[in-house]
Amino acid sequence: MAQIGQVLVDVPTMQTNDPYSYAIPAELEQQVQLGMRVTVPFGRGHRVVSGVVVGLSDGTNFDGQLKPIASVLDLAPVLNEELRQLADWLADQTYAFRITCIQTMLPNLLKAQTAREIKPTTELSPAEMAQYFPDGAPREFDTSKLDDKTMAGLLRLQRAGKVEVTYQVTSKATAKTVTGILPAQSIDELKAHQDAVVKRAPKQAKLLAYLQTLSPTTPVAQSRVSHDTGVSAAVITAAEAKGWLVKQPIEVYRDPFQRPVTPTAPLTLNTAQQTAVTAITQAIDEQQSQNFLVEGVTGSGKTEVYLQSIAVALDQGRTALMLVPEIALTPQMVNRVKARFGHRVAVLHSGLSKGEQYDEWRRIDRGEATVVVGARSAVFAPVKNLGIIIMDEEHESSYKQDENPRYHARDVALWRGRYHHCPVVLGSATPSLETRARASKGLYTRLLLAKRVNDHPLPTVHVVDMREALKQQGESDFSEPLLTAIQARLDRHEQVVLMLNRRGYSSFVMCRDCGFVLKCPNCDISLTLHMDTHTMKCHYCGHEEAIPHVCPNCHSRKIRYYGTGTQKVEQALQQLVPTARILRMDVDSTRRKGAHEKILRQFGQHEADILLGTQMIAKGLDFPDVTLVGVLNADTALGLPDFRASERTFQLLTQVSGRAGRADKPGEVYIQTFNPDHYAIELAKDQDYERFFVTEMHMRHQGNYPPYYFAVQVTASHEDEATAAKAMYQIVAAVKKGLSANAIVLGPTPKAIARVKRKYYYQVVIKYKHEPQLKSVLEQIRQAAQIPARHGLSVTIDPEPMNFM
Ligand SMILES: Nc1ncnc2c1ncn2[C@@H]1O[C@H](COP(=O)(O)OP(=O)(O)OP(=O)(O)O)[C@@H](O)[C@H]1O
Ligand SMILES: [Zn+2]
Ligand SMILES: [Zn+2]
């Protein structure tokens, strides 16, 4: 046996981080490479499972019996050396399995067993075309059906960039090639044919003349040929039959943002921006893995700093990765990057179809796109030769994945920065406490943009005490001061952004006679009323049922709606200001593809006076005529059982306030709250991040919370409550044995929302500073959890959890 491949197999019920050894049969020896996906027989039944080759070794002296690799799924590796190392590190950091990490890194299309197709690129010569693609069409790529010689030949062509393997998606919306035309004979031969037919078949002659002008290697779209010559498809097909030309598919990429973007030139930087760009440039020049925190107030021009830093990296022939939170991945931000870097930009986010995602991934992998913009998972984009990594709104909790592997994109970005010896730039108006604390310790270089561009002032913020408002004007979502301010904007033809911290029509239904609240039968939480579908929905499991008209408990008809949702607020507002044109932006109104973009475009073009939305309007929007921001309910997040409640509230209020007065007209903000004295609200009023940081650090110190302590959360869940609780107590006992007296164990407790999707959840949170044993104890818990997993018990380990609910 010449070679042995180490394969990480994908068997969900029997995960392990150790690869299995497989023999590489002679016929696959030329093909198998590190980082390729393969299929292998597994277990007693020898069923075929997929896996990834993570090691190759010489098997000459191996005399045992090994099962052979069954087939190779890729022609080129899907994981390069960097990403393989990253997967190992990620598995270690997040207590996830290596194969799970690898799957997270690959585009969706590569995760499933999709049909594969091999097809020519424009580099393929007509002779090779004729040999390997006799019918001119892409062919199925199935190693078990191709003979060795063909396989070897294709492999050679692939290395030369002459063919490639693509993955067929089943949906019809993926047509991504157009028919192209290549001349199949020499100019002299074509000329001879032309002379021969010129009298009797002028159309054919015309086509033959045209073919003589074409390159023999670069196909021209058939539609183009028809347009230029005026000949029909039938004439072209006849010419193909005569051997004068060949048809070859031309790949066209799907562009997820079709709208043309007007190019922009770099702006002249102000002093603070220039200082920041200079510092970052130096790190790029010196190929240092130095990390920066760009702490810049809202509207201070952070984006311009990012763009000019990216330009520096590109000038040096390196690439750039820019991460933005999903929610901020608005067309506005994408357009700003595209306007500067044009077709060099690839965009990755969850709104793309699998095919679009894969197209972008391939453009990156081939080096065609050198600037990658994307949400969390884009941190795994296969960009080579990185010169800079940027993470905008670095405080956003959506950068943490809340399923396996539970990674934080910031940690991955920092790892890649070290790997590529390039700077990582974390930017925010309201940095996470962790990041700001690290900057204090000197781990990140802090670059401060303390003022808005052009010395525009920050908006004036008013806090409205809703307890008083309620006494004076009764129940309403709009206080008098806010309404007056809205009316003033309408009179002056300026624009208003209103934020409501919720979705749906009203949060729950309650009986006024007996207090009965309609809850989800699967989860222990109230159902939400949705007026668009006229149903009650559970936001956790998706359960849906009819709206009750009588109380299911006491049969009273006095069952009514409580709470506030965007649709209800929209209706109330429309009654209060009948002339206002209102756009609503929430999960429901943005469900359709492109809806988000459309609403923002309408607002930008002044087709509406008021943009009313949920948290999704808080970030990144840059509209010059918005001079008023209103926050209808500032408190919703304050009461949550989460030590980050204040931080989140402060961040959200500061970010949304920052939408007001960004250009020449001054901005004003009204924050309605039932807790006007809370420090998060008071400091958001002053937009004083530094004081908030100091205050909140003090609170964290007192409560022994991050960033003073590390935290890890372990959760056990089962349909049977006792089973979940028992498992959790056993886990806690095991953990405690391995911990020193300095560690703090919170729990076990039922989760704040104890029952979700028919399962009960118990959790423990361990806070610690230095516990060398903890890692191996948690490893053991993870291993042990594999067996009960088959009986419905699941155990998750979440390092530095973001969500305590
Ligand atoms: N040097 C400059 N000269 C003139 N205008 C600038 C300059 N830098 C940025 N701007 C403009 O200032 C506005 C605000 O900048 P930008 O959106 O980058 O701020 P930001 O710091 O990212 O804000 P936020 O955190 O609120 O999103 C934009 O319209 C931008 O075009
Ligand atoms: Zn539910
Ligand atoms: Zn009742």
Automatic annotation (TrEMBL):
Record-listed Zn(2+) 2 binding positions: C520, C523, C538, C541
Similarity section: Belongs to the helicase family. PriA subfamily.
Annotated EC: 5.6.2.4
Keywords tagged on the record: ATP-binding, DNA replication, DNA-binding, Helicase, Hydrolase, Isomerase, Metal-binding, Nucleotide-binding, Primosome, Zinc
Catalysed reactions listed for this entry: ATP + H2O = ADP + phosphate + H(+); Couples ATP hydrolysis with the unwinding of duplex DNA by translocating in the 3'-5' direction
Cofactor: how and how many bound: Binds 2 zinc ions per subunit.
Record-listed Zn(2+) 1 binding positions: C511, C514, C551, C554
UniProt cofactor(s): Zn(2+)
Record-given protein name: Replication restart protein PriA
Keyword presence, ATP-binding: yes
InterPro entries: DEAD/DEAH_box_helicase_dom (IPR011545), Helicase_ATP-bd (IPR014001), Helicase_C-like (IPR001650), P-loop_NTPase (IPR027417), PriA (IPR005259), PriA_3primeBD (IPR041222), PriA_3primeBD_sf (IPR042115), PriA_C (IPR041236)
Subunit and partners: Component of the replication restart primosome.
Gene Ontology BP terms: DNA recombination; DNA replication initiation; DNA replication, synthesis of primer; double-strand break repair
Top-level taxonomic group: Bacteria
One MF term in the entry's GO annotations: ATP hydrolysis activity
Designated gene of the protein: priA
Stored HAMAP family: PriA
An annotated GO cellular component: primosome complex
The keyword Zinc appears for this protein: yes
